[in-house]
Amino acid sequence: MSGIGRASVLIGAGTIASRLTGLIRTIVLVAAIGSVSSRAADAFTIANQLPNNIYAIISTGILTAVIVPQIVKASADPDGGRAFISKLFTLGTVILLITTAIAMVAAPWLVQLYGSRFTPEQLALSIAFAYWCLPQLFFYGLYALVGETLNARRVFGPYTWAPIVNNVVSIVGFGVFIALFGSDLTRVDQWDATMIAVLGGTATLGIVVQAVLLLFFWKRTGVRLRPDFRWRGVGLRHIGRLAGWTFLMVVAGQLAGLVQANIVAGASGDGASVTVMANAWLIFMLPYSIIVLSIGTPYFTQLSEHAHAGRDDEVRGDVGRSIRTLGLFIVVATAAVAAAAVPASRIFTNSAEDAVTAASVLLCFLVGLIPLAVLFVIQRTFYAYDDTRTPFFFTLLQCALVVGTALAAGAAVQGGVIALGQLAAAVALGQSFASLVQVIIATWLLQRRLGGLQIGSWTLALGRFALAAIPAGLAGWLTFLLLGGSSGWTVADKWLGALGAAIIGGVVLVVYVAFLALLRAPELSTATGLVRRFLPGKR
User: Fold this and answer.
1) Angle, to 10 degrees, between the axis of helix 2-33 and the axis of helix 39-56?
2) Which of 298, 401, 465, 480 is found 20 to 30 A from 106 (Cα to Cα)?
3) What CA–CA distance (Å, rounded) separates 36 from 358?
4) Where does the sequence pass through the membrane (predicted)?
5) HEC sequence for 201-245
């Protein structure tokens, strides 16, 4: 456990720094182009998310699910996996170059897919942004390929810390944009080619620097890369079979996201739309990234080793311990963000009224945070056994529910059941519902495969955490009201919103820990030991 603890702290500290600088990056970006009811911001968001969508296929789909376990296995080869990794990198680079070239040619059609409800002028602006943003595809892929290999070789830190440099580059670039062209440029007719180049070019430059920086840590893997186009005989066909299911799974997710984006884009210029959803998701992912990825990533590497060695009992133990540990932190994070939803949303909006609108979207996303954390462990347990087929089917069900609930939300607006301004929140709530159903089905399937998961023990632990989180969340909400509520100082500006959210979150945490101590939760001592590792001088 000490190795996992140290790795978790290293990843967690890097993730915290990365996410905090990412928050500042988004604050500067929102100052430049707005968020709620900003057609320019929605145009940029669609264009800048295109490379991110492909990155999701590369990272979440193929690399994390398939490549890490395969590199762990290849490490047992006489050459330590060096030949395998060289062939893998050669193949990956070729695929990335071809994919990026195709995406650049297809830019107008790609934007049209996601922004079909944009006005012609807004669509043209988004396409112009896309030409500047799509080169990110290659560098996102390179970053993911190098980073996941570092993780598989137990070099956990650089992959998490490199995005900080990306954020710093973006903060400086967006600041230069504001100095040159002004702020709150929300109308499409305010933009010219130079402005588009500065904003889009800054976003891409940050990704380039991030990827190049990661290459400097490659020596720690002990692998000397060389181009190798002889891809036969090292199990790449096996990887292809595994990746085929993951590829289909992530494609299904992207198609579901495509439906969501098109429906929500109908509210662009009239309320919360794609930019608000993206920013709410950024807040939502803050605790997920800090807690789930920092703790779960080292567990996944260990879990893969145990699964490869056929030690099923240890795998079952890994599953239970990781869910209980993740749950202890993710439950309080859910309560804290929910209580501070309005001040937290004020960070990414330009008025208190807009913050209230954005907070409703955030709250609807938060319903799915705990299920998503549990799913992280369950899904990657299937991956550790080289089973990407089963996750495809329970994810396909989730995607179908996402599409169905998004279409239902759009129909509800058309029928006058909900207002256009509530559309994004309704779509977010539908996604959370789909995640809840998905994790229930996934857990049942894993229980059928492995047995002995002791679901009751970690479900009881999650219930204990939730019991402590209820009074903690209420204390946080009361603190928000005492600080003036939606008309108080916590929503006066972005920085006060951040301060208010921190104060509210601190209150929630203190009350949560106090109640867990009263309940004598055994997981509290484990959490205390993990937190102590973050203190200066602790290891």
Assistant:
1) 150
2) 401
3) 8
4) 7-34, 54-76, 88-111, 123-146, 158-181, 193-218, 239-261, 281-301, 322-344, 356-378, 390-413, 419-446, 458-483, 495-519
5) HHHHHHHHHHHHHHHCCHHHHCCCCCCCCCCCCCCHHHHHHHHHH
Q: pTM of the prediction? A: 0.82
DSSP letter string over 348-396?
TSSSHHHHHHHHHHHHHHHTTHHHHHHHHHHHHHHHHTT--HHHHHHHH
The helix/strand/coil state of 327 is: helix
- Cβ distance 37 to 421 under 8 Å? no
Q: Which of 50, 7, 285, 283 is nearest to 160 (CA)?
A: 7
Specify the amino acid at residue 296: G
Q: Angle CA(61)–CA(67)–CA(73) in degrees, nearest 5?
A: 145
Q: Is the dihedral of CA 499, 504, 510, 516 positive or negative?
A: negative
Tokens linked to 258: 């495509």
d(CA 522, CA 517): 9
CA distance 366 to 361: 9
Q: Which two tokens stand for residue 415?
A: 């029928």
- Of 276, 291, 28, 350, the C-alpha closest to 167 is 28
Q: Which ranges of 34-181 would DSSP assign to H, the alpha helix?
A: 39-56, 68-74, 82-105, 107-114, 120-133, 136-152, 157-181
Nearest residue to 324 via CA among 517, 516, 522, 520: 522
Residue 268 CB burial class (10 angstroms; 0-12, 13-18, ≥19): buried
Centre a 10 Å sphere on the Cβ of residue 452 and count the other Cβ atoms it contains: 13
The pair of structure tokens assigned to 286 is 């803050």
Residue 1 clears pLDDT 50, i.e. is over it: no
Instruction: Read off the pLDDT of residues 82-127 as tens digits, 9 standing for 90 and up.
Output: 777 777 777 778 888 888 999 999 999 999 999 888 999 999 999 9
Q: Tell me the domain boundaries of the chain.
A: 2-531
Band of the pLDDT at 539, cuts 50, 70, 90?
very low
Please name the residue that has the structure tokens 């779960």.
Answer: 296
Radius of gyration of the chain (CA): 23
CA pair distance 420, 398, nearest whole angstrom: 25
Q: How far apart are CA 403 and CA 391, in angstroms?
A: 18
